Each structure stands twice: as C-alpha cells, then as structure tokens.
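Ticket #4471: structure export looks truncated?
Reporter: QA, pipeline team
Priority: medium

Steps to reproduce: submit the single chain below to the structure queue and open the exported record.
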Amino acid sequence: QVQLVESGGGLVQPGGSLRLSCVPSENIFSIYVMGWYRQAPGKQREKVAIMFSDNTVSYGASVKGRFTISRDNAKNMVSLQMNSLQPEDTAVYYCHGIQVGTGNNYWGQGTQVTVSS
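Actual output as written to the record:
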C-alpha cells in the first residue's frame, strides 16, 4: 500500500503563486505515473497535471501555461508549481499515483487551495 503525502496548500490572492509537493511512501521509481487532480465544490474531479516515468507530461487545458509539474528523484518528490492563480483554481488538490507492476491507483488525502482577495 503506497501512501502519498501532500503539502503546500493554502490561501493566496488572485495572480499569486503556490507550490504543492507530494512524497510517496515508496521509492518514486516504483510509481509509473504521478500527478495532480483537483475537485471544486459541486464539480467532478479533474486532471491538473500528470507526469509519466519517462518525464512525459500532460496538463489540463485550464492550467496549461500557468502550472508546471516536476519530479525530483533525489528527494523522492513530485511538485506542482502554480502561477497566476485565479479564483476558479480554488479546489482540493489531490496527488495521484499508479504503481508499476500492479497498476494500483493511490490517492493522497488532499490539500486545500483557495484563491481569494
């Protein structure tokens, strides 16, 4: 059972930046895909950004050009740099991983991001 621990959420003004981090309990090389999803109140969970083990990335349309996903193998960590935040980015952000071999999906507990003046 892989645990994903997120950190870095909070309150920020429109136009501001935040950085989220996710640390898996297993070696990051055992995770085939890692990424971020978000869910706003009353809405479905949506993809924000995902990164495959070969460093291929995919972004949701609403965040492309503003958010950047990165992976630090030495720190066993995946991060999401969020710039030019807008109120519509307000949501609970979840770290997600798919394990190599088993294909099991794992989710973090979620971290709240609120963009408001």
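Status: closed, not a bug. The export was complete when the record was re-opened. Leaving a note from the reviewer for reference: The mean pLDDT is 93.
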